[in-house]
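The data are passed on as follows:
___
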Amino acid sequence: AVTSCVTSTSHDKQWYQRRVRGYITGLSLSSPAEECSGKTTEATSFTTECSVSYPSVGASPDVHSFIQVKEKEEKKKTADGSDTRSFLAKYWMYILPVALLLMMSMGGQ
């Protein structure tokens, strides 16, 4: 704790640490005077140095160019027009219901 007589008799420094949005996350106060002598002072001016620091924003990934590269690859795949998948891989959604219906209808026999 720093008492008022310490700050009134010396040159004190204050540091404020803030978040990116401006909220204060820390406060530091420093004074060269260590303690008061017990006597009153009649100081007419104060010397205070105040510093405010914000965190530096780090590098962000370049998502836009990554998405463009992926879109180009996708267009290249569809532009080729040749589908190299097997017959079952292409038409499994049509074969599966027919197979299930056949299996259910033949289940009682």
In short: The first strand starts at residue 11 and ends at 18. Residues 52 and 103 are 75 Å apart (CA to CA).
